[in-house]
């Protein structure tokens, strides 16, 4: 760094502890004090602070060797991954890592603390010189930026990787999804052709971006279709779960959301229940991010809503924002027949459910969503298992009556 020649600094001199004393009890003093301690102990070694490194994933990718130093003793939690991931995972709150990267040795100090913004953390890379530290930090961020076999989920003001949601998406399929007419193929073809047409869009001078809105009452396949579509597209996926935060404003969070999405293009950004995410307070900022001066080349925004009436017309009625709106209405008689036939073929051998009983059942379930049809089958099977002497068709008819009462109560 170029040193400015000055006589003023000889007259005005700040002590090394200026920042820590000035910030005093403010949480911002903590990283200042940590860095001061590290610089004092590092001697001639470079101490370079950074934020947001996914160091453990970088090591899991085989790009460095990583080992926690025994002193100071790491502070970590052993967490169970649940039934889907039945093993223990280590979550380090405080740790000093010994790192081997490209035949070089480095040390990374990770410190986590709590502030009014929630959990905060920072890393310090200690290396022979700052060039080595910068090279390491840059490589970690480059290699771990993409989510890989995970979905990026936004909540509490930050992104996190979710392998569980990624796996749930891998289990989704268009094969067991019943939709009106040829809607399923229309959706698949629209998005497939979009991803294959980047060069054509550029030649025509048209922005290669896409917005689509899935509209309809709950329980009719919107979420299932989104998951099956994300699996089929095979590109990076970002899912916005919530904009609630006790410190950051929704405007700041929309900026974080679109900033990360633009860094992963081509990618799909999922906004589930759009009517609850976009409010009067943040709508203009959301629109600026969606189609304003920001460059969204290769960005596919996929939103869903159960309540289109709650969405401002500037969003739902302007084609440049959501180019296509796909409607997921309550299933018609023929669609209920197709859905129930799939279940009948699966359950007939065990329950004795006859094929000629499907039509009367489909006719009696007018107004049922696919979710309610599924609940009808599952609740009927559970009830029938308690008394297998009862005819399965009789049990189904009894459950139809119960669910209709439930639907009236909800209404």
Q: Please state the average pLDDT score.
A: 89
Count of all domains: 3
How many alpha or pi helices? 17
Shape: elongated
| Number of E-state strands | 13
CATH class label of the largest domain: Alpha Beta
- The secondary structure category is alpha/beta
Biggest sheet record: 7 strands, mixed
- Poorly predicted ranges (pLDDT <50, ≥5 residues)? none
The CATH topology of the largest domain is given as Rossmann fold
Beta-strand content bin: 15-25%
- The percent of residues in helical segments reads 40-55%
* Strands side by side in the biggest sheet: 8-7-10-11-12-9-13
Provide the gyration radius in Å.
28 Å
CATH architecture of the largest domain: 3-Layer(aba) Sandwich
Describe the fold and architecture:
The model has no long low-confidence stretch (mean pLDDT 89). This protein is α/β, with parallel strands linked by helices.
Concise synopsis of the structure shown:
The chain is of the alpha/beta class. The protein has 17 helices and 13 strands.
SSE topology:
Blueprint: H1 8-11, H2 18-23, H3 29-42, E1 46-50, H4 55-60, E2 65-68, E3 75-80, E4 88-101, E5 104-115, E6 118-127, H5 130-144, E7 151-155, E8 158-162, H6 163-170, H7 183-195, H8 198-203, E9 210-215, H9 222-233, E10 236-240, H10 250-262, E11 267-271, H11 274-277, H12 283-291, E12 299-305, H13 313-316, E13 324-327, H14 333-351, H15 358-364, H16 370-386, H17 392-410
Helix pairs in contact: 7-9, 10-12, 14-15, 14-16, 16-17
């Amino acid at each position: 760094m170029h040193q400015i020649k000055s006589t003023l600094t000889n007259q005005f001199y700040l002590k090394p502890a200026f920042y820590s004393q000035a910030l005093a009890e403010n949480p911002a003093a903590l990283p200042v004090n940590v860095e001061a301690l590290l610089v004092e102990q590092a001697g001639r070694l470079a101490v370079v602070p950074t934020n947001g490194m996914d160091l453990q994933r970088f090591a899991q990718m085989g790009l460095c060797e990583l080992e926690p130093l025994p002193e100071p003793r790491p502070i970590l939690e052993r967490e169970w991954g649940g039934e889907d991931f039945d093993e223990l995972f280590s979550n380090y709150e405080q740790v000093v890592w010994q790192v081997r990267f490209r035949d070089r040795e480095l040390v990374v100090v990770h410190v986590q603390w709590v502030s009014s913004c929630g959990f905060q953390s920072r890393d310090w890379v200690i290396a022979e010189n700052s060039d080595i530290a910068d090279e390491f930090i840059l490589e970690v961020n480059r290699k771990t930026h993409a989510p890989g076999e995970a979905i990026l989920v936004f909540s509490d003001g930050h992104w996190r990787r979710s392998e569980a949601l990624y796996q749930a998406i891998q289990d989704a399929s268009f094969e067991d999804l019943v939709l009106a007419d040829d809607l399923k193929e229309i959706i698949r073809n629209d998005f497939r052709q979009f991803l294959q047409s980047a060069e054509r869009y550029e030649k025509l001078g048209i922005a290669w971006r896409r917005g689509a809105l899935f509209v309809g009452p709950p329980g009719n396949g919107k979420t299932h279709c989104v998951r099956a579509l994300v699996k089929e597209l095979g590109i990076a996926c970002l899912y916005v779960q919530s904009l609630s935060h006790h410190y950051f404003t929704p405007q700041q969070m929309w900026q974080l959301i679109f900033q990360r999405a633009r860094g992963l293009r081509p990618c799909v950004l999922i906004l589930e229940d759009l009517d609850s995410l976009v409010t009067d307070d943040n709508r203009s900022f959301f629109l600026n991010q969606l189609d304003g001066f920001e460059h969204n080349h290769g960005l596919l925004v996929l939103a869903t809503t159960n309540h289109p009436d709650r969405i401002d017309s500037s969003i739902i009625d302007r084609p440049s924002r959501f180019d296509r709106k796909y409607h997921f209405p309550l299933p018609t008689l023929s669609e209920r027949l197709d859905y129930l036939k799939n279940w009948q073929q699966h359950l007939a051998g065990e329950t004795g459910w006859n094929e000629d009983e499907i039509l009367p059942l489909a006719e009696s379930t007018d107004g049922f969503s696919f979710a309610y049809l599924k609940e009808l089958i599952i609740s009927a099977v559970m009830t029938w298992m308690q008394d297998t002497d009862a005819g399965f068709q009789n049990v189904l008819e009894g459950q139809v009556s119960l669910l209709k009462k439930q639907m009236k109560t909800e209404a």
